[in-house]
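Researcher: Please translate sequence to structure tokens.
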Amino acid sequence: MERNLIIMHGGGPTAVINASLYGAIRAAQESPEVDRVYVAIGGTGGLLREQLKDVSNVPEEELAGLLTSPASAIGTSRDALEAAEYEAMVPILKKYQVRYVLMNGGNGTMDTCGKLQARCRDTDIRVIGIPKTIDNDLAITDHAPGFGSAARYMAGSVAEVCCDVESLPIHVVVIEALGRNAGWITASSALATDSYAHGPDLIYLPERAFDEEAFLRDVKKLIDEKGHGVVVASEGLHDAAGKPIVEPIFTVGRATYFGDVSAHLANLITKKLGYKARSEKPGLLGRASIAWQSRVDRDEAEACGRAAVAAAVAGETAKMVAIRRLPGETYASETFLVDIHEVMMTERKMPEEFINAEGNGITDAFREWCRPLLGEPLPKLIDLRNGV
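Model: Translation complete:
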């Protein structure tokens, strides 16, 4: 009886999901407790269709390219699974003599891990979750692989926009950030000041109810005092009743296609305040960019993949690999295991101490927490007008 391992991806890809894949494949190849290494092509749907690929003998020179390849090299999915699909997975896993199942994803994927493990309770199949989400909303873990790179992209790109707006200060630019219910990516734009003298002037997070009148007052003050500026807003902004400020295009389960929040806010500025405004929506660029990939994020993603294999072959099941910061002046982290039931569909949002009292910016505490995750220092953007 072989002791095979399978790796699946779930949910939206990141700039480092393939680094976790690399770590898991390499650790499995090196383990005497693993006979074959499979990947499911296209997530859980790929498993159900038996679209499996044996990667046991893929050479290191090819695997190493995963570390700097965007998105998912094996495909991912947002399959809506019911009891019948979970039941159907078990005989397929047995057919391919799979003992170890690794699922790399966010909240929905961890929910899938727990439900699959429940079906495998009377077997020797072990299920381990590898964390992944740019939204950074997984519980327990200090942060999730994928967030650091998305945060680096947001900070660096917003710095470039701020530089542009300062160069031709004739408008207010509204930038829309990814993040359904948690404002981690939106907040990371504040670190633009690590790159350029001027960062975003206003930041709006989904953790606070959006007040249109307060927003217009904030922008009016910005125009009166400065004459131009940059606003960063979450795609998931909602009012006090929980209604999105822009009607979603459609919603199916957890999948919501939000309306164009940045365009809506820019139009509000123009119509209500009579001032020129434009919108920018990086969208998928922010989660796919290898150019802005964080080395810290990549290394931690690989470590999580390796730790998942180590946990599975050691006999662990129904666990997720998590990241813990180590004490000290220099940033360092380690992996540890948490019970999958503590993270299944549990959404972690920005804590109050990271949001300013006005609800239109973030605090220095967040900057200090977030900065190490961006990796190497952001490039410095020069402005010769300073002091003039």
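Researcher: Any highlights?
Model: The chain has two domains: 4-145+291-342, 155-287+349-374.
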